[in-house]
Structures are given as C-alpha cells and as structure tokens.
Amino acid sequence: MPVTCQRCGWQGEQAQYCARCGAGLGKSPAAEPTSFPSLPPAQPVPPPFQVAIRPAGFWIRFVAVMIDALVLLVAQGILFGTGWILANGTMAGGMALKGAVNLFGTLIGAAYGIVFHWRWGQTIGKMALQIKVVSMDGGPLSFGQAAGRYFATFLSALILCIGFIMAGIRSDKRALHDLLAGTRVIRL
Predict the structure, then answer these.
(1) Backbone phi, then psi, for 12, in 5-degree steps?
(2) Model pLDDT for residues 24-40, shown as the tens digit of each residue
(3) N or C: the chain end with fewer CB closer than 10 Å?
C-alpha cells in the first residue's frame, strides 16, 4: 500500500519511516522523530581547510609598479647606452637611435609585463613586495590572460587612471584590468 510522508511529500511502498527525511509515516508531523530511532545522531562534518585570500590593495600595487618602472628605466638606459656606443657617440644617427631605443624599450616593457605574469605571476616589483597576480580560481595566468591584462592596463590609464583607482575603492581590490582579464592580485 503506498504511503506519503506528511513532512516532505515522499511516496513509497509499505514503509514505516520516510526514506528522504526519516520521519515516521502515519504520524502527525509534530509527533514524528527527526531520525531513525536505531541510528546514532549524525556527527557534524567539519568544513574543508581553506586559506584566507588577502587581496593586495592600491598602495602596495602602486609601489610595485614604481619598482618595475625603475627596473625598466635601467634596462632602457642600458639599451640607450649600447646604442650610443654603437653609433660611436655621434648625433648623426640620433633620430634613428632614439626611434630604435623607443621601439625596443616598448617591446621590452610589454615582454616584461606579459612574460613575468604568465610564467611566475609576479614582476620584480611584485616579488619584492610579496604580491602575486592569479586567476580568479587562484591558479596561474594563461598567456592570453597575461597579455589581455597588460593591454587592459592602457584602458585603465586612458580613462584618467580611474581603472587603477578602482583597486583602492572596491572591496575585492580588483582594478579595471583585473576585471577585464579575470585576474586578481593577492598578498603571499
């Protein structure tokens, strides 16, 4: 004979207790037991261990960018000095030298930002300050994410640096380029 649980609506054949919620069948919901009488009470399962993620705020990220700018300035100075030596210290090839230095300086800056974030999640400035760029699931960045994040920084700067300021305003400390690339910057 089919029976229906008054508490959860489960239907079964000739059962004394509900298979879904354990309520006694044929009794009113107020008088029914909450579990099987012969079973011991269930022990609570502790939640899995999770490490608290601490996002890196605006100022620590700003200092990391300043350290990176200094590193790139030194690299560009070395590049310019090398070009000056190759041009024998004359100004005859000055415009060509300046153009080449600017081109290679831009390429070095792009490669620095993309490759360091892709391979290690950190630039030298971020390494010095113990912060790291990770994907939203906490894993490493793909090459596409690293490149997208690099080029999205230009958008963050283009709108009066509001994209960078967002890292100081938002509770999750993500800047516009982080939102666009699906990344976040965390403290180690």
Answers:
(1) -150, 180
(2) 776 544 444 555 556 56
(3) N
